[in-house]
Amino acid sequence: MDKQNWEPKIAAFVCNWCTYTGADLAGTSRLKYPANCKIIRVMCSGSIDPVFILKAFERGADGVLVSGCHPNDCHYNAGNFHARRRWDFFHELLDFIGIEKGRLQFSWISASEGKKFADVITKVTEDIKAMGPFTAYKKMNSEFTIDFPEEPSELPEPEFQENSDKETE
Amino acid sequence: MKELIKHARELLENGEVAAVIGYRQVSAKRTKPVIITDPEETSALVFNEYCLNNLAVYLTKARIKLLCKKNDKVLKLAITAKPCDVHSIVALIQENQIDRDTIHIISFNCHGVAKDFGFDFNGDNLASKCITCETHKPLYYDALFGEVKETPQASDTALARIKEIESMPHNERFEFFKSEFDKCIKCYACRAVCPLCYCQRCITDKTIPCWIETSSHQRGNFAWNVIRAFHLSGRCTGCGECDRACPADIPLSLINRKMSMEAKNLFSFVSGRSLETPTLVGSYNEKDNNELFM
Fold first, then answer.
1. N or C: which end of chain A has fewer CB within 10 A?
2. Helix, strand, or coil (residue B163)
3. Quick one: what percent of chain B has pLDDT higher than 70?
4. Does the structure show a pLDDT above 70 at B282?
5. What ipTM was estimated for this complex?
6. Pairwise CB contact (< 8 Å): B175 & A89
7. Of A151 and B218, which is predicted with more confidence?
8. pTM recorded for the entire structure
9. In terms of CA atoms, which chain B residue is nearest residue A95?
10. Minimal Cβ distance to A54: which of B166, B223, B288
11. Domain coordinates of chain B in residue numbers?
12. B206 with B52: CB under 8 angstroms?
């Protein structure tokens, strides 16, 4: 696929109470935003495990967006505060092992911010588009092959010994 | 050494502790962990530059229950620990895995250990954690032995390596770690030897749904090593046992050290140093840095 026609795949993990509702508002307000984000609804930004994000990259995502309620707005009081510390670490870890910081983005979007949702999705899509496809991670999927020992092209013909004794009996 | 043996013997004879976890000499430059319950056997206990194992790994809830419950009485468990191993014990207490009252810490004034068994103890063969060590005297202890000695000087090669990796562009870094993780054979020695990997069931053992692929190909290896490093970030006390245990020589403690540096930078937190402060990832502050979020 040439780079001009390439469209990024983005996984967006969004919290049920704020960002998902914000996305709903963006829809009902008929706001336009790129269709590259695949939205995955979870109950809280605090319940998004880093393995979800690795799995998204494994399955071919070029970028990941994580979004939840603004600080102090969490439906479960402190879910997003816990998430914030965790993401600070995870972002640094991914950066250290060679995944650019732009591949994984974060935002707080409340239920009334339909416009912000459209803007964030547009920005993330543009960022990932500028970075190009995440071939480094995808290559790991294709590089997994098993080296079987080569089979000899011509197998020696098996020799059968006729059991003549039994036949005659 | 005599003081240590005498102290351990007294503890066991007086019925204060149910067992003593310590080191015994195997050969000139090698020790092994030993769990002693008989006062007569305490003469095997040693402490020297070859006491490499972090014995805090034996402080699991199940083992304490097994060892310490005698005739409906719960006794203490004595453990000999280097000052850096005390950090691991403190981290375990912080995370409510063990109770401070049930542990009797026998510690030492430490001047460093060798990088592995069989090496002469000098500046060239100093364990990398000892190069930057600041706690030659333990922060918490119930009994303290050993004389204060000078630590041999050595250059901090691990930090230089981290700086070198940080200066590489992202794609080179990714290739570097991919090739390092590719060596992994999924033996999980790093998990078994880590005192803070105490989960009864590790996420990699949960295969329905399969979050981390268990076969040792690139994709599964990458996911396992990233998640292992993440689960220890902000918790790792830097004992370096994972590095020593890894049969494939993956620079695990390099990533752990980088994450400890981040914990210090971002939250000015060092794991396992104080019983009063809450754990880093288990707590939060409303004034935490919010720059990451749009």
1. C
2. helix
3. 99
4. yes
5. 0.88
6. no
7. B218
8. 0.87
9. B170
10. B223
11. 2-145, 157-267
12. no
What are the b/e assignments for B256-282, b being 16+ CB within 10 Å? bbbbbebbeebbebbbbbeeeeeebbe
Average pLDDT over residues B239-268: 91
Tell me which residue in A105, A120, A144 faces B218 most closely, judged by beta carbons: A144
Whether residue A97 and residue B280 make contact (CB cut-off 8 A), yes or no, is: no
Decide: B186 and B247 in contact? Cβ < 8 Å: no
Question: Distance between CA A83 and CA B110 in Å, rounded?
Answer: 38
Which residue of B284, B287, B290 to mutate against A (max A Cβ within 10 Å)?
A: B284
Hey, where are the domains in chain A? 10-138
Check A81 against B267: CB less than 8 A apart.
no
> Are A93 and B171 inside 8 Å of each other by CB?
no
Q: Would you state the pLDDT for residue B225? A: 93
A50: which chain B residues are within 8 Å (Cβ-Cβ)? 226-227, 230
Q: Is the pLDDT of residue A29 over 80?
A: yes
The dihedral of CA B236, B240, B244, B250: what is its sign?
Answer: positive
What would the pLDDT profile of B56-81 be if each residue is shown by its tens digit?
999 988 888 888 877 677 788 999 99
Dihedrals φ, ψ of B148, to 5°? -80, 125
How close, in Å, is residue B177 to chain A by CA atoms? Answer: 6
Over range B9-38, report the average pLDDT.
Answer: 91
B53: phi then psi, degrees, rounded to nearest 5: -60, 140
| B254 vs A contacts (CB less than 8 Å) | none
Contact assignment for A98 to B281 by CB distance below 8 Å: no
- When pLDDT is averaged across residues B250-261 and rounded to a whole number, the result is 92
In the CATH hierarchy, which fold is given to the domain comprising A10-138? Answer: Rossmann fold (3.40.50)
